[in-house]
Amino acid sequence: MKSKREELAVVMPLGHRLSAFASIGFRELIDEDWIALRPGTALATLINSKAKTLGTILRTRIEVNGMDSVCRMVQSGLGIALLPAVALRPYERFPGITSVQLTDDWAVRTIHVAVKADSQLSAAAQALVESLWSVPDSDLLKS
Fold first, then answer.
1. How many other β-carbons are positioned within 10 Å of the β-carbon of residue 103?
2. 3-class DSSP assignment, residue 2
3. How many Å apart are CA 102 and CA 26, to the nearest integer?
4. Which of 41, 47, 100, 126 could form a disulfide with 121 if both were Cys (CB 3.0 to 4.6 A apart)?
5. Where is the LysR substrate-binding domain (predicted)?
6. What CA–CA distance (Å, rounded) separates 43 from 95?
7. Tell me: the pLDDT tens digits for 56-107?
8. How far, in Å, CA of 18 to CA of 111, rounded?
9. What's the number of CA atoms in the CB half-sphere (13 Å) around residue 101?
10. CA-angle at 35, arms to 34 and 40, nearest 5°
């Protein structure tokens, strides 16, 4: 079984009042306008659960289907979002957004991939595993 760390980052428009911070806690974000992934995704469930533990419900401006749409909404200034830091790499093409490291312990997740020792992976499965492990842990957060 392979394991890899995944850090969540706060995505926000450049010039946002919180964009000057190197890192920030979730508690400081709860009064912001949010761009969210559709309910039922692991990330949406996690974020909403953490908001509930703080006794609040996030002010969601819009729910979208994917990270590309999240970045477009953030770029448009509609709010902030939480996304896996490593997933932001392809979105460097969106000028006007930046990310800030989230400091909460729960914002670092461990991804596990397990396969039977004696099984051969299909080409698609092998490509997925290689993709998941192509970025070094030290490069997971890049603003």
1. 15
2. strand
3. 7
4. 126
5. 5-132
6. 24
7. 999 999 999 998 899 999 999 999 999 988 777 765 677 889 999 999 999 9
8. 28
9. 11
10. 110
Which run of H or E residues covers position 6?
strand 2-13
* Residue-range domains of the chain with CATH: 2-134 (3.40.190.290)
The SS3 of residue 26 is helix
What pairs with residue 64 in β-bridges? 37
Q: How far apart are CA 143 and CA 138, in angstroms?
A: 13
Residues paired with residue 84 on neighbouring β-strands, in sequence order:
8
CA–CA distance, 71 with 82 (Å, rounded to integer): 10
Q: What is the distance between the alpha carbons of residues 82 and 128, in angstroms, rounded to a whole number?
A: 23
Record the tokens describing residue 34, joined without a space. 């949010």
Maximum distance among all Cα pairs of the chain, rounded to whole angstroms: 53
Report yes or no: 52 and 78 within 8 Å, Cβ to Cβ: no
The amino acid occupying position 135 is: V
The yes-or-no verdict on residue 122 having pLDDT over 80 is: yes
Give me the amino acid identity at 102. L
